[in-house]
Amino acid sequence: MFNRGAWKLAASVVASLLLLGGCGLFGKDEAVKEIDPPQDVSYLKDGQSLQETTENQKEEKDVKKATETVKRELYLIDKNGFVVPQTVELPKTDAVAKQVLEYLVEDGPISEMLPNGFRAVLPADTRVLGVKLEKDGTIIADFSPEFANYRPEDEKKILQAITWTLTQFDNVKKVKIRINGYDQDVMPVNKTPIQDGVSRADGINMEASGVIDITNTHPVTVYFVAQQGNNTYYVPVTRRVPNKEKDDVVAAVNELIKGPSYGSGLASEFQPDTQLVGKPKYEDGKVTLNFNEAIYGSNKKNVILDHVLNSLVLSLTEQKGIESVAITVNGKANLVREDGKPLSEPVTRPEKVNAESF
What are the residue boundaries of the GerMN domain, all occurrences included (predicted)? Predict the structure, then answer.
């Protein structure tokens, strides 16, 4: 039999040989494994076997992992029927793409954390059979047959919610759908086309009212404000703008000033006489906008309202290549936030939309 010193030496040698493997975004099967150096060395107590120690370490690791959470964006349907991002804390997992889809299922794990006025988008009992990420950034989501048990009027909302939830991850560009292992060229109820994959460029909460010739337009997504009780949140809306407007930043600003559609339940705090003074300036991912004084929304000098600033930043950073927004008024950068702090630096997009703080 070993004496106590020998047991300790054996434990040290075994522990030093245990390597922890890290996983990527979509789980062990689809990720490149990383090797981490050993972090801790555990010593055996009197009367404790090596197997007992290993099992205890595994249990402690599992408990720690189960209590860790991360913030994710889930696209849900609000009381006005809009598909809206809501940031929630989810248990930490290796297979995050599969997890976020599971949290879109009605009566699923999202039930205990649904914000007031919101509902999940996927039919009850839908199972996520798997996800597969292709090299070109297309992700294939495979659902059980229950996926098709939705109301026809929810079809585009479901497709948008899946697409925008999955494309929150940088390496996901497009989404394709399978049902029970079979590729779908169209959605199963109203036959919305999906054969080449759907991306954010296809829009969300589409508005096309008043557009006569859609072929001479292109989509631009802007963010308006909605409220549920004391909770204020931002809603993305895609509109069709004329192709003659070559600058999508100008087009987005004009749509924000125009405001939301009447009766939509959305709001805007832009003054109707707000205008851009000159063309936007672009430099290394930053766009600088020069407004007239109507951009001020307060009686206090030089104050820009939070909802105006946030809507601008969310809308413009939705566009490719724009990472931050700087604002001047008649060429001067002397704006002040509502909290009294000077707006001295360009504003970047928040990591998660509709989190507790912007």
Answer: 97-188, 249-338
The boundaries of the domain holding residue 171 are 69-199
From residue 16, give the alpha-carbon distance in Å to each of 38, 48, 110, 318: 6, 19, 41, 47
How many other β-carbons are positioned within 10 Å of the β-carbon of residue 57? 14
What phi and psi values does residue 273 have, to the nearest 5 degrees?
Answer: -95, 15
- The SS3 assignment for 266 reads coil
The reply to whether 167 and 47 lie within a common domain is: no
Measured at the CA of 27, the angle between CA 24 and CA 28, to 5 degrees, comes to 90
Q: Tell me, yes or no, if the pTM score tops 0.85.
A: no
* C-beta separation of 105 from 120 below 8 A: yes
What is the rounded distance in angstroms from the CA atom of residue 264 to the CA atom of residue 223? 13
- How does 265-278 read in b/e, with b if 16+ C-beta sit within 10 Å? bbebbbbeebebee
Is the domain of 210 the same as that of 343? yes
The verdict on residue 265 lying in a domain is yes
Going from the C-alpha of 24 to that of each of 58, 93, 184, the distances in angstroms are 20, 10, 27
Backbone angles phi, psi at 332, to 5 degrees: -110, 135
Q: Are residues 40 and 110 in the same domain?
A: no
- Segments of the chain with pLDDT less than 70: 1-66, 210-212, 356-358
| 212 and 335 fall within a common domain | yes
**316-344, pLDDT tens digit by residue?**
999 999 999 999 999 999 999 999 999 98
Buried b (16+ CB within 10 A) or exposed e, 110-132: beeebbebbebbbbeebbbebbe
